[in-house]
Each structure stands twice: as structure tokens, then as C-alpha cells.
Amino acid sequence: MNIRFLPLMLLIVLCSDHEFALAENGGQGYRLEEVTVTAQRRTQDVRDVPIALTVVSGDEMRDKAISDLTDMASLLPNVSINTDYNAMYMRGIGTAESNVIGEQAVAYILDDVYVPRLDFLKPGFVDLANIEVMKGPQGTLYGRNATGGVIKIDHGMPTREWEGFVNLASGDRNFKNYEGAISGPLTDKISFRLALRSAGEDGFVENLVTGGKSRNKDIEQARISIRADISDNFSIDASYYHLDYYIGAFFGDEIHKYPSQLRALGEVFTPGFESNLDRRNFNSSENESSGNGYIAPIKFTYDKWDHTFSYVYGMVGLDDAIRADTDGQSANAVRMFIDQEFEQISHELRVVSPPGRFQYVAGLFYLETELESEVGTPLYADWIKFINVGGLSPDGLGLGGVLDLVTGLVTNDDGELSRLDGYFTVDVESFGVFSQVEWSITDYLVMTLGARYSDDKKHGTAILTDAGPYPIWDVLILGGYTADETLIFRDFSPKISLSWEPHENVTIYSTFSQGYRAGSFNIGAFSKDKYVFDAESSDTLEAGVKTSLLDQRLRLNFGAFYTEYDGYQLGTFNGFTFTQSNANEVRTNGVEFDMTLLAAEGLILSMNVGYNDAKFVDYKDAPCRTEAPLEPGYQVQGIVALPPSPECDLSGKGLHRAPRLSGSFSFSYESQILDWPLKFVLGGDANFKGGEYMDPDLDPDDYQEEYWIYNGRIGLKSLSESWGLEVHVKNISDELVKTYSGDVTLQPGAHWALTNPPRTVHAALRLNF
User: Angle at the Cα of 737 (from 733 to 742), degrees rounded to 5?
Assistant: First the structure.
């Protein structure tokens, strides 16, 4: 995108609170519906919330055939999400994909329960009511691990009237998305809601070794919720959400850069080997993440003295298994296995005052988590059988049986020459107390004061050893290590905001806030001195304008932000070891602007654009990018390296996962066909993302150039919207884009990637009752 268009785009851009439903305006035509949110733990008009806030309804997501956060992120400027491989970044701030037990920089709140694992987002959405996305540190009300922002997800709730829906979608590559919900009363005081979803698709990356496809998905979700209205002022809401997923992705799945120094080796083990980014790979097996889990909140709500008292008890559990062919070759040389069990119990007690000149929210929070993780990285001898020189292979020479005998003598029963075994546990206790007060100084000027105190205690154990039979890993990891560490972190995060309404449809706000993320443990560390990393803190200044104009037919919102991070947590994989560290200082600053316009009856135009200038201000001990052998800068890894973990200075360099410019432009049109009880539906969106580095070491081979993605839909629906039939086309121009890129295991200078799906067409039928 040519930068000369930036001034024009910044005049028409959009970023946050868009809601595409229409409402009649007392006989004076149509207007955009008002948007209410609960971002500040009470129901408010979105214009009264002095933060950058995006609201997306479940109906809008279903209309656009968006079923997960990865697709939704394309509509949001300054947001990068890839749930297939644990990547979630806001304004360039996120969590390293390589640290699979690290807590997120973006807090995830599901039905009022804090969930610290991105794995719960892998399956996507079922019976979604709405999503609120809050950018920037949100330490006061959401506390721990919200330095990048917050994603708050609410599901459909039980109703006193019978209602429901069925959504059936099918298309290319055996794509399916079957979803339905039913809700209604069981008694005069008890109501329920049941939602089910089954989704999946065949992979789109051709495996030239097995003849199959990589990137398959299979997802099952179920949620049941019960609401009991015990009395006029006391209610209980309980739900149980179960998820089961298979995601055919972990690390990269196709090599797109291979150094000339190693190419002959690649061709020896993989005949026909190539390193083009073309949705083809040579893996001996599919990389995959599979698991199942549950989230079970119980909420008690009691109204007394015009206040609302609520207590939320949450139970969370997850079992996850990762299996990865980490060498990217047809030879079965290196694999990785990660098995995890996670359990969490949380308590939150809140009191919300009635609306008034002084109104407040206050509460207590307590959380316990237990994580157990086993990691195995075997080196196999089977690679010998894959040697192919000039078309001659061991099997072709009649030596296959001999090599089977030889490898059987020198390996263990699983065919392993050496196996790196790691066993890790992390137990967390976290306590917080928080309060936020809003004082209406005048009818037009409001001051908000908030603060949160947090106390985190973490206990971690680690055992990293070579399980034999040969001490190959012992040499590479300098003998391994054991660790038993207890960490304590305490933090006080204040917030102050001013909101001014110079006009009833215009709000101007400014906010200063602080955020905090506790330190933790790195399960990828190969030495004890790299096992612990420190806490992260942030200071943010934000200011903006929110408007509702033209008799509520136009929304224009503008925001500017400046954030400094001390001890920013990040990590990378350099082909040999995982590194997790703290950058001394990181800075992000930019602008976000949004517009939603009801241009004519039934026609809505929306635009979202964000600009972000994110940099490492001080990061002198950053990991170096891995160079190919004999290349300038190449450094040997392992026991013979001096030093074993080389460091580079990235101070002044741009932050990874932080494109300078990103945006989305969309339209939605509905019109009755003649005087028939039918509506014609047409919609589309164009999503732009500027160039970004995919890895913290800023290796140019892991850079994705700027790109556009186009999506469209066309269909019919009844006037009453009791049914609808649409055809959706995703990635119309069949753009090929890296969504992850990094180093390949034990092959210095080689890089592999995950890519986006190709053009996909599917039909969707929706029934409402």
C-alpha cells in the first residue's frame, strides 16, 4: 500500500464499536442501534467507556461466516491472532508461541471467568452472544496478564421465551460448520439453554511424502447453561462448556527457505526436495495439537440497597497433546511430544453501585492453577534409510533389511538414538483487590479513578535429562538440569480517566493506566539460568473522541495511544533451543480510527484503520538470528559454542508482530425483493495488513510482506429473518500469506512457515425460531 494514501485513510478510518443491526427511529427513518457493553463491569453505552473498545455481536460474526478469533482479527486494526499456533498480539504486544505454558499478555475472559490459556480459543465459537475487545493495558478491572489488552466473550444465556437457531454450512475441502442452540423455560423460575457445534475441514497443504493433506481440523463443542431466578433480587447462573479439538498445526509445516550449504543434504534425504512457499511439504507425519477441556462457571447475583453483589466461581480444565515432526523432512530424524494437564479454580466477588453522580465497582479475586507438562524430543536412526543419492537408496540396493538390523541394534525399542525428556510443573496462587470510582464532576465532565493490588506466588519444578541410549542430547544441553523455584510478584496498578461531553453525541476522553504481568518459567530452557524470566509492567497514555452523528446514522471514533513496557516478556526458537527473556524497554504508539455509516436504508459502510509505531527501545541481550553454516554471523550451538547462547542488540529496531498499518473496509447491503417476503443480501470486506516480522529475532527470512485479503457473500433471507441462505467466498484472490515463520530444528539457516487457507467457497443455511 502506498503511504501517500495514509492521510486520506485516516480521515475515513474506523476501529472499534461497530454494530450492524438497524432500528427504526420513531418514523424518522432508520439509525444504527445503540451499543451497550459491560467492559467496566456494569452495563453502559459504549461512548461512556474511556478506552479503545471494539464490540462484535454473535449475529454479525455468523453473518460474515466468522467462527474463530483468527478470522475476526482481520477486521480489527493493530491485532494479530493465529489460534492454530497460540499467537495473540494487540498493538504488537503478545505472548511467544514457543512458550506453551506461558500466560498470555492478552487476558481472555469467558462468561466472567479468567482463562489464562489460548488453547481454549482453538476450537472457535459456539452460540456466541458478543465479543468485547479492549486494547492496551487493562490492569484495574481485569488485573493479571492484561498488558496487551482483554478479549471478553459472552455466550447466549437462557431465556424466558422459547427460541433457538440452527446454522448449517458446508463447502470446499469437506468444510463443515454445524451449530445450533435452543433456549426456554423449564419452570416458572428456571430456564435453560443448550448449544452444540461440530466443525472441521480437510487440510490444504499437500504432503508430498504421505500423499495426504496437512492442516486438518476436527472440532466438537457443547454448552449447557441454567438460570434460576430464586427471587426478585437473587439469581443463580450456572453453565458447563466442553470442547474437543484436533488442529493439524504446530510450529511450521512447510520449509520456505533452505540455505545452499545444506541443500545437498536436504536432497539426499528428501528426493525432489524444494523450499518454495506453495502449500506443499515433506513432513513424515502431520504436526498436530489435540485436546479437550471444560469451563464451568457458577454466578450468584444478589440485588440489595440498590447495589448488585455478585460472586463468580469458575472451574477450568484442559488436557492437550502436541505431536510434531520438527525437522520438516521425509526422514524421520527429530520429533517433539508435549503433553499437558491444566486445572484452575477461581473466585471473584464484586459489588456494583447504582448509577449516580458517584458510582463504583469494587471486588476481590483469587485464583489457583496447576499445570503438569511432559516434553520429549527423540532423535531417530530411521533417517539412514531415507538416504537417496542419484536415485539409489538402501531399499533400491537391497540393503533395507540390513539397515533395519543395524538400527535395531543401536537404538532403543522405539527406534531412538537419544531422547531429551523434560518434566515440568507450575503451581500458581494469585490474589487481587480492585476498585474503580466514577465521579460526575458536572453533567458533562466525569473523572474515573481506579486501582488494583495483585499478589502472585508461583512454584515451578523442572527436570531436563537425556534418556539415552546415547548421550547425544547430553552434549547439546550441557548435561541438563533440575530446578525447584518459588517466585513472588506484587504489583499496584492505578488508573485515571477524564471524559467530557461538549455535545450530547460527542465524548472526548483521556486515560492514564498501568498494567502488569507476573514473571514465570520457561519450559524450553536448556540450562537452569534460563529457566526463570521476570515480570513485565507498562504505563499507557490514551486519548480519543467517540461520536454518534447524523441522527445516529454515523459513528466516528478516533483514538491515540502511547505505551512504555518495562521488562517486556518475549521468546523465540532458534532451531536449537527456546529462549525466553525480558526486553528492558519497549514502546508502542499510534492511532486508531473508525467509521460506521448507514449510507442508505439497508446499506452500511464500515472502515477500520490503525497505525502503530512499535520499537525495542532497549534490548541489548536479544537472541541472535540463526545463520546458515559458513555465512557471516554463523555461531555454533551447543557445548562447543562460545558463548552457548549468543546475544544481539535489537535496540531501536521495530517490534515483531507489529505492522505499521492495518485496516479493514466492509459493506453490508440488504433490500426487499419487489413486494415479496424476501430480502436480497450482499456483503464484502477488504482487509489490509502491512509488513511484519514473525519472530522476535527480526530475521528477514521470517518477514511477511504487506497484503490484502478479500471476502464476499451473497444470499437471500426472509423478511422476518426466520431463515437465510448465503454463499460465502473467503480469500477471493487466493492470496498466499505466512501466518507464522521461524527456524527449523537443527538446520541452521532453514525456515518454515504456516500459511493461510486458499480460496474457500461454502454455503450456509440459517434457521431461527
Answer: 170
